[in-house]
Give the backbone structure.
Amino acid sequence: MNQTTTLSFFRFDRWQDRAWALTMMGAARLAMPRVPDIGFWKLCGSGTGEGFTPRPNTAVYAILCTWPDVETARDRVANTTIFQKYRARATEDWTIFLTPTSARGNWSGQEPFLPVSEPESGPLAALTRATIKPGILPRFWSRVPDISAVIGKDPNVVFKIGIGEVPMLHQITFSIWPGATEMAAFARQQGGPHAEAIKAVREGAWFKEELYARFAILGDTGTWGGKSPLQGLDLS
C-alpha cells in the first residue's frame, strides 16, 4: 500500500458560509484528529489573485491530509462528517488524490510524506511550503507577484493556487503540470523571477522551515471552475 495525499478545495459564495469556513479554521481542529485512518493534516486558507498574495481570500479554503492508501482516502473524504459539512455549505468543491514521489524538508517539524518511486512520465503535482522569517516578510512578498504573473502566463501549468495555514507567515504553493520537463523548464528559466527568488532565499536564509514535494496524480472528484482541472490529462 502506498501513502495517499488528498488536497480538498472548497469555495464559499454566501457571506454566512464564508464566516462559517473561517471559524472552522479553529473549530475543525477538534474534529480532524478523530477522523479514522488520518495521518498528517492541515487546514488552510488561500490568498487573492490565484492565491499568490498575502491578502486572504475569504471564499476559498483547503484541507490537506495523508492516508494509508487511496481506497481509504476516497472513502474518508466522501463519507466522514467533517468533509460532508464542508461540502454541504460549499458552492463548489474539488479533491485531488496524489501519491508522493519525492519529498525533502519538514512541515511543522515532521516529514509528512512517504515517497514511492516516480513514474517515468505523466502529469505531476508540485507542492512547496515554507515558514517565512518575520523580518523577511517585505522582501519575500515583493517577489511573489512577479512569480505569480510568470506562472499565470506559462501555457503548460494545468492548475495553480497559493494557500497557507497562517496569512503572511506560512506559504504553500500547489501546481499541476503535464510532466516533469515542463515543470523543470519553468523553474529553471534563467534570470526569471522564480530563479531569482530561489537564489535570494538560499543566500539570505529567508525560511525557518521549508518543504518541497512532488506527486503522481491518482485522480480526483468534484469540480473547480465548473470542471475537473485534470480534464485532458492522460492519467493512465
